[in-house]
Structures are given as C-alpha cells and as structure tokens.
Design brief:
The protein is mainly alpha-helical. The chain is built from 15 helices and no strands. The protein folds into two domains: about 80 residues, no CATH class; about 160 residues, MetI-like (MetI-like fold, Orthogonal Bundle). One of its GO terms (cellular component) is plasma membrane.
C-alpha cells in the first residue's frame, strides 16, 4: 500500500512542475525579458572584451576606426614586456599576499570575538557589542589620520605589516558571526560542556563549522575590499616595490597617458586573475551578497 501512494505523490509533483513550466513558457513577455537581459549582459561584458583585444595589439598601435581594434594584427609581446620589464607582476603578488593574509587574520579575529560575545559570560558584554555596532557608523576615511599617526609611531609605514594590520578589524564580520553563533542550539552547547569540552574545542569543533556560510561571505568581501583598497596603501607605502595594484596601476598608466595598448595590457594582467576568481567562486559570491544584504 505504501509504494503506490508514494508513486502517486511523485506523479502529482511532476504534474505540478510541468504545469508551472507551461505557465512560465506561456509568459508573453518572456522573449522580451530574455532579449533585454542579453543586451544588458553584452553591455557589461563589452568593455572587458575591448580591453582584451586592445591589449594584444602591437605597441604604439593607433587608429580612428573603432572596428580596427578588433581586427589583426595581434601581438602578445606586450604581456611579456610588462611582466618582465615592469613592476606590474610584483604589484599583483603584493595585492594577492596582502589580500590572503588580511582575509585569514580577519576571519580568525572576528570569529574569536564573535564567539566570546555570543557564548561566553563576562561583564559589560552588551556594552562592548554596542561599540561594535557604533563602529559601523564611522566611515573609514574619518580614521585615516589617527591610523596613520599610530602606524608611524609603531614603525609600520612602508611595510607589509603596515598594509595588513590596520585592515583586519571588521565590526560587520563580528556582528554577522555573532548572529550565527547565537542560533547554535543551546542543547548542543550544553551537552558539549557536560562532556568536558573546553571553550577552544567548543569554538573549533562545534560552533565554527556551523558558520561556514557566514565565514565564506565575510572572507569574500574582506578579500575584495583588500584587493580594491587604494587610500590606505597610497598613504602608507613609499617604495614602488611594495605598491599594490590599485596604487601601482595609476602610476604606470600616467607614464603612457597618450597611449592605449600598454595601459590596457597592464589592466588586463591585473583583471584576468579577478575574472578567473569570480568565475570559480561565483556561487559563493552571490550567496554572500544575499547573506549579508550588501548591494552594489
């Protein structure tokens, strides 16, 4: 008696799904919506395509006809010249190193702080959490001058430490992770404590694995923010060998203000890793946007 009932329910669900698909296909505006979405996608991707085509033109190429940028001749010598004869590749590595270390330290510190605020009992806990909330109301530009003075007094200017350490504080990350840790079932926490689980094991083996979606979202946006950060590296770094891409690219492009090819090649070298990373982590980035509520 059980099997026919299950098969009947499956048949009903399949029928409902088919009816929904038919209703969707009967939408008179479906083709218009798809066409409009296709046009918008082309409009967004066209500058990237144009940049890639310009980047493989011979050095010094110039034309007044827009279509000529997409036609031969092509040359990949610009990529080799910029990688080996300029600091673009070094700046790319600097951005990658700073972004990865900043993301790791931010996740470590914010998760520990959120766990303490969520699961540990101590005085003035609510007051401390209010300070984290107030931190979201202060724009980063307002803290640049005191941050610069502190970094200068500690001897952190013009160093990797000066690029990384001031950027690892994330009040938003603490707030998001605390909300996740608050939703962990109390029965799980209490049973782990009864079994003799220490605070560190409780954090590392029970609470932290449940917050993987929040950790992914915070990690993605921290890395993107570090990769695109311009103001603080511009103020704190003096040596060109320590420049990150947002600071180094304008310096490089300013020497070729009347040319197209070499600046576009440099921008392509800087953009290709980001495009590849986006294609790989597209689902995680979309989930992170929906999770945190951040909108561009």
């Amino acid at each position: 008696m059980g099997a026919p009932q299950i098969s009947r329910d499956n048949a009903i669900q399949v029928t409902k799904q088919k009816s929904k698909l038919l209703q969707r296909n009967r939408d008179p505006k479906l083709r218009l919506k798809v066409s409009l979405a296709f046009i918008i996608a082309i409009a967004f991707i066209f500058p990237i395509i144009w940049m890639l085509f310009v980047s493989i033109k011979p050095e010094g190429f110039s034309t007044t006809e827009p279509l000529a940028w997409f036609l031969p001749p092509y040359s990949f010598e610009n990529y080799a010249n910029i990688i080996f004869d300029s600091l673009i590749f070094r700046w790319l590595l600097n951005s990658l190193v700073v972004g990865v270390i900043t993301t790791f330290l931010t996740l470590l510190i914010t998760s520990l702080a959120a766990f303490a605020l969520s699961q540990m009992k101590f005085r003035y806990k609510n007051l401390i959490f209010i300070f984290f909330l107030l931190g979201l109301m202060i724009p980063g530009e307002a803290t640049i001058i005191p941050l610069y003075e502190v970094a200068k007094s500690l001897g952190l200017l013009d160093s990797y430490a000066g690029l990384i350490l001031p950027m690892i504080a994330s009040p938003l990350g603490v707030i998001i992770l605390k909300s996740f840790f608050d939703n962990v079932p109390k029965e799980v926490i209490e049973s782990a404590i009864i079994d003799g689980c220490s605070n560190f094991k409780l954090f590392y083996k029970i609470v932290l694995p449940l917050a993987k979606p929040a950790l992914s979202a915070i990690g993605i946006f921290t890395f993107i923010g570090s990769w695109n950060n311009f103001l603080w590296p511009y103020l704190s770094i003096l040596s060109e060998s320590l420049y990150t891409l947002p600071v180094g690219l304008p310096v490089f492009n300013s020497t070729y203000s009347q040319a197209y090819v070499l600046p576009m090649t440099a921008n392509a070298i800087a953009s290709i890793p980001v495009i590849i990373a986006f294609l790989i982590f597209e689902k995680q980035i979309v989930k992170g946007i929906s999770l945190t509520g951040i909108k561009g």
